[in-house]
Specification:
Number of domains: 2
Order of helices and strands: EHEEHEHHEHEHEEHEHEEEHEHEHHE
Helix content: 25-40%
Number of strands: 15
Strand order of the largest sheet: 2-1-3-4-5-6
Strand content: 15-25%
CATH superfamily of the largest domain: tm_1862 like domain
Oligomer: single chain
Largest sheet: 6 strands, parallel
CATH class of the largest domain: Alpha Beta
Number of helices: 12
Structural class: alpha/beta
Radius of gyration: 21 Å
Shape: globular
């Protein structure tokens, strides 16, 4: 008898894409077969995003389609994982198409959840009950999961993403991440570097350090604090690694000078800064609960260019609707 085939569809950010890759490799090792398309699958997993309503609407539309598929294939198992799963939890289990729900922190349990659902055809849910509760360092299940199943990017040879932290503490008014991925929790530099070394041995040459606000990375052990600049330098020293990148940065002063100096000191650390401005209007930034002004953002860019004249800067902007006249926007920053 063939092992069950799993089809995974991913929505959302790079964090979700990384989780999808980790889950795919974990399920293969657990004996499941990857399915190239939905029609070949015994299990369909949807890795979801909640950062915008449109992202959730797409998932709900997809579940509506799967409801009709299950009318013809009643034994098909449908699972919802990721941020939307954490946000809605048992509410999603009420959907006719959904058999299991799994939050981002529970993905190490996913293989067993699928087995139980296949065996009993009942509904399963695993989410974090108190999402803002700090994660104990004694619970290293996610670290072990990352180390075991981290690998190169399947689409770009020689490249890999390495998560250095989870969660967020900024509470921007438009963003759900703090409520579905919890508070900031930084992985130990030892665990991160062990993963980087393992990737390098597999032929990975470019590593991107990943975090919701990656420049907030701080790991305290006794009297020692490791910041992102230290981590960048250590990663660049791993044998076989030729390029080091990091995303996404929050416009903040803390450790900013140290990060720029690390980039300037090592030819392996790419001179690229992904730092979303979100808006050029101070009024809008305040409404977003972003803790900087347009002038401060521009000052950070100028500081970066003073240290690294050839640095590339990228980020996200809120796009104005058609017909919007920025000259009439209250609180705008004229030089932004």
């Amino acid at each position: 008898m063939k092992s069950p085939a799993v089809f995974i569809e991913s929505f959302g950010c790079q964090m979700n894409k990384l989780d999808t890759a980790l889950v795919g490799r974990a399920l293969e090792e657990a004996g499941f077969r990857p399915a190239a398309r939905l029609t070949e699958a015994d299990v369909v997993l949807i890795n979801t995003c909640s950062v915008r309503q449109h992202a959730e609407d797409r998932v709900l539309s997809h579940l509506g389609h799967l409801k009709h598929v299950k009318a013809q294939r009643p034994n098909l198992i449908v699972g919802v994982i990721g941020c939307m799963a954490q946000r809605l939890g048992d509410q999603l289990l009420e959907h006719e198409a959904v058999n299991l729900v799994c939050g981002p922190a529970q993905i190490p349990q996913l293989a067993e959840l699928i087995r139980q659902t296949l065996a009993h055809q009942d509904k399963q849910a695993a989410v974090t009950e108190k999402i803002r509760q700090p994660v104990s360092r004694a619970d290293d299940s996610l670290d072990r999961f990352e180390l075991a199943y981290g690998a190169g990017d399947g689409q770009i040879p020689g490249q890999a993403f390495v998560r250095v932290m989870r969660g967020c503490n900024y509470f921007c008014t438009y963003c759900v991440v703090p409520y579905v991925r919890g508070p900031e929790a930084c992985r130990s530099p030892e665990a991160i570097l062990e993963q980087v070394r393992k990737l390098a041995q597999k032929g990975v040459r470019q590593v991107t350090l990943l975090g919701q606000t990656v420049n907030s990375y701080q790991y305290r052990s006794g009297a020692k604090t490791t910041c992102l600049a230290d981590l960048l330098e250590a990663t660049a020293q791993v044998g076989g690694i030729e390029w080091v990148r990091f995303v996404t940065s929050y416009p903040a002063d803390e450790f900013y000078a140290e990060i720029l100096q690390a980039m300037a000191a090592s030819p392996k650390i790419c001179r690229y800064l992904h730092m979303p401005a979100q808006s050029g209007s101070d009024r809008i930034l305040q409404a977003m609960n972003r803790h900087y002004t347009a002038a401060h953002y521009l000052e950070l860019i100028e500081k970066a260019r003073a240290v690294l004249p050839d640095i590339a800067v990228a980020g996200d902007q809120v796009l104005a609707p058609p017909g919007y006249d920025r000259r009439q926007a209250p609180g705008r920053h004229d030089s932004g």
